[in-house]
């Protein structure tokens, strides 16, 4: 109990100290991915997820979908697990070449972390050495991150973090535009600033517009439980085709950019949610 309180105080003060920390889809992007995923769980997976969720989540995965961002400060080893740096301008990803941290340690990237926490969760129901609550929260968060195109970006600009732009009239960096600004502008303009209306619109497209693609999104070749290399390859391709395209230092990004990139953001949020559910359904049977 005391430990919880200290942890909570630490987290709250860190959040207050670093209010604009930008790692991963913003809170809304992550909540959207997790809410879509939880609505698609099998009975067995839904039960396992409920058992593993911390009490304060009130059985809602979306409530703890940004946990992994908040613990970057108390688990510094985890910050390299949110992204992948790929070679500049190459627009491709390869696990053996790119999935490593700044010290060159293999497997320490978001794709390696998804494999890691998927493997850990497969020990659910047996006597396990792992903290499966943490494994669930990490996996749920990283499945969102790997679908954010600029989380699989170029090395020298740190996935757009060092590219300064204007989002309409506001100074911003390109990475943050994709984490949060496109989503927030869409919510404000089209969905009454109501995240649930935005989620409903995505859900409707999953069942109508994209219904014939969903099985492909869910599939993993060779009986694998999860396929982060596919998701990462798609992301760097979308980063080149949409996120970086036409953008340079000090670009002003307004309606042209917003309206032409929003469909990609909608699609990646949908795929993240569908694939998190598919992975959890395979893990928990
Ligand atoms: C795997 O999970 C363990 C436990 O959280 C962690 O210590 C380790 O750094 C993780 N490695 C990767 C590549 O995710
Ligand atoms: C597992 O991790 C959660 C979240 O960090 C923590 O609250 C809980 O105390 C941990 N459980 C054990 C048994 O260590
Ligand atoms: C849903 O699909 C329609 C038709 O393609 C599109 O106009 C709309 O923007 C999409 N909405 C979302 C949230 O994906
Ligand atoms: C997938 O698993 C099934 C059942 O375990 C097996 O029969 C099949 O050969 C496997 N397919 C591949 C591609 O490994």
UniProtKB/TrEMBL annotation:
Top EC group: hydrolase
Superkingdom field: Eukaryota
SUPFAM superfamilies: Phospholipase C/P1 nuclease
One GO molecular-function entry: nucleic acid binding
Keywords: Disulfide bond, Endonuclease, Glycoprotein, Hydrolase, Metal-binding, Nuclease, Signal
A GO biological-process term: DNA catabolic process
Reaction(s) the record says it catalyses: Endonucleolytic cleavage to 5'-phosphomononucleotide and 5'-phosphooligonucleotide end-products
EC numbers, comma separated: 3.1.30.1
Stretch forming the signal peptide: 1-24
Keyword Cell division: no
Keyword Calcium attached: no
Assembly, per entry: Monomer.
Family from the record: Belongs to the nuclease type I family.
Protein name per UniProt: Aspergillus nuclease S1
